[in-house]
Amino acid sequence: MPKLAQDLEGIVNHKLDALMPSDIRLFDRYVSQYEGVIKLTLGEPDLDTPEHVKQAAIKDIEANDTHYAPQSGMPRLRQAISKYVKKLDGVDYDPETEITVTVGATEALNVTLGALLNTGDKVIIPTPVWSMYMQEVCLTGATPVEVDTSDDGFVLTPEKLEEVIEREGKGVKAVMLNDPSNPTGVTYPKEVIEGLAEVIKKHHLYALSDEIYAELIYGDTKHYSVATYIPERTLYISGLSKSHAMTGWRLGFICGPAEIMKNVAKLNDFTITSVTNNVQAAGIEALENGLDDPKEFKEIYQRRVTFMEKGLKELGFDMALPRGAFYIFAKIPEKYNGDDVSFAKALAEKARVGVTPGFFFGQGGKGYVRMSYASSDEHLHEALKRITKFVKEN
C-alpha cells in the first residue's frame, strides 16, 4: 500500500485541520458496539419511500435515460419544485433562473455557503443545531457565531439577533435558520419569523433557511418561512429526504434571487455536473403526484411523539415542545448533573438505548439528549421501558 511521500506531508488544505468528524455519527458508532441496542440516534425515517416514487425511477432506468441531465436540474423537476414551494410558502421562484437541483440538502448548503462567503465573514447560527452547519461555514474560511437559545424556548428571538449583530460588528453576512429544528423539533411562531425578517433586512444580511422538515409539522402548528417575508435576501434550501423518506436518494434543491443563484448554480455545476437522472425522475413523481404522501407519515410521527413525550415527562425529563421534525430534545433529570455525554454513554451500556448528547449540537444543547422517534412503534415502546428502568435504578 502506498505511503505519502515524506516531502508532501502537511501540504494540504489547512481549512480541514480544524474540522472534526461528525460527533453524532461517531456516537452512533459508539452505541452500536452494544448488542441489542435500540438506536434513537440518527435522523433518518424508518419508513419506506412511497412505491409510486420508486416505480418512477425504475421506469426512467428502463427507458434508458442514461445521459447527462441539465446542470441545474431537469426543467420538469424545477417546475415541480417551483409549484411546490409556492404552495407551501407562497414564494414564486422562476424555474429557469431561481432554482438549482442538488445532491441532497447537505450539498445544497455547501454550494450556497461557498457561493456567498469569503474568509473573515461571519454567519450567525442559533444553537442547539445540526453540527454540520458550523463545520461547513468553517470550510469556507468564514466564522460561525453560535447563539445559545436555550433560555428562549430554543428559538432565536429578534431581540437576541439584534444584540448579537451589534456585538459582532462588521463581518456578519448571514443568519442561518432551521425550522422546524433539528435537534429540538421546535417551530418558529409567525411573529418571531416576521421580527427576524425585519432585523435581517435592517442590517443588510442574507437569510439561509433550511426548510428540510417543513412538511413535518404536527397538531395545529403552522410553518412560517422567512422566505415568505424577505424573498429578495433569502436562500431557501430543502429536499425530499424527510418529507418523502428519501434520504438515500440524495435529492435537494436551492431557491433564491436570480442574481445570487447564478453563482450558486455555477458552483453546483463545478461540484456535481448534474444530479442522477432516475433520482430526478423520482423527484418529479413525488412532487407531481405525491404531495399527500407526507400526510400519512405525519400521522405516524404524531402518534409516536405523543407516546414518547408523555412517557418521558413522567420520568422527570423536561423538553422543548416537539411540534415538528421527528426529534425530542429532552433535558436529563437533575440527578445526572447536566452531564449529557455521561448519561448517554451509561444509557447505551446499561439499558441498551442509544440517544445523542445535546452538547454535540452546540452550547445551547448542554444537559439535553436528542431522541429520534423516526423508529418503529415496537422499538419506541421497548426503548421507553428500558429508559424507565434505567432512570429508576441509576
Summed up, what is this model?
The protein is of the alpha/beta class. The chain has 13 helices and 13 strands.
Description:
The chain has two domains: 6-49 and 293-393, Aspartate Aminotransferase, domain 1 (Alpha-Beta Complex); 51-289, Aspartate Aminotransferase, domain 2, CATH 3.40.640. The radius of gyration is 21 Å and the shape is globular. The model has no long low-confidence stretch (mean pLDDT 94). Helix 8 links the parallel strand 6 (206-210) and strand 7 (234-239). Strands 2-8-7-6-5-3-4 form a seven-stranded mixed β-sheet, sandwiched between helices. Strands 9-10-13-12 form a four-stranded antiparallel β-sheet. The chain has helices at 23-32, 51-62, 75-89, 104-116, 132-139, 158-168, 190-202, 226-229, 258-272, 277-289, 293-314, 340-351, 377-393; strands at 38-39, 99-102, 122-127, 143-148, 172-178, 206-210, 234-239, 252-255, 318-319, 327-331, 353-354, 356-357, 368-372. It has 394 residues and is of the alpha/beta class. The longest helix is centred in the C-terminal third of the chain and has 22 residues, at 293-314. It is 42% helix and 14% strand. The chain has 13 helices and 13 strands. Helix 2 (51-62) packs across helix 10 (277-289).
